[in-house]
């Protein structure tokens, strides 16, 4: 009997990307086992979603720890105890201590609402509009100590329309994020995507550029 690919998720907010992952699992598109959803906020909507889906949850407050590093090491120790194969940051709004990340190299991904390397950090939609960009998008990347700077796995792109303001642009992009993240996780779980020597590989071959979301699948 094949052991299911084990996923843990970190989220700080309402959990819409977690909901997309759970929905993909329920549709049979994501053959994984969710072993934990953890948050730095006890009232995060993601924890409620996880509880409703029967997924174990964990909430730790940064205020209970002396500094960021202490919190991060405590959190990741608890996550490691669930033995996930992959850790997904789905709206986890914290900068993580570099030393805490080291054991997770190649096993942690993040979804970010911009076409990286553009607009790392916050307010990505506002910044894209202010720059007069004609295109916007989302990226999924492997996590490193550099903020939003790890190797990019795949992206979803869309045009910026004349009527877009920050809120409308965010809403339109979120629908793409909800397709992009499950597609990446599915290919990682299937062993198709991996990080080798600092480069993203698909089926054993290093990619020259991030994959692109086309429909519900990833393509070169």
TrEMBL record:
Binding positions (N(1)-(5-phospho-beta-D-ribosyl)glycinamide): 15-17
Chain residues that bind (6R)-10-formyltetrahydrofolate: 68, 93-96, 110
InterPro entries: Formyl_transf_N (IPR002376), Formyl_transf_N_sf (IPR036477), GART (IPR004607), GART_AS (IPR001555)
SUPFAM superfamilies according to UniProt: Formyltransferase (SSF53328)
Enzyme class: transferase
Domain of life: Bacteria
Molecular function via GO: phosphoribosylglycinamide formyltransferase activity
EC number from the UniProt entry: 2.1.2.2
Reactions catalysed according to its record: N(1)-(5-phospho-beta-D-ribosyl)glycinamide + (6R)-10-formyltetrahydrofolate = N(2)-formyl-N(1)-(5-phospho-beta-D-ribosyl)glycinamide + (6S)-5,6,7,8-tetrahydrofolate + H(+)
Record-given protein name: Phosphoribosylglycinamide formyltransferase
Organism listed in the record: Dyella thiooxydans
Gene: purN
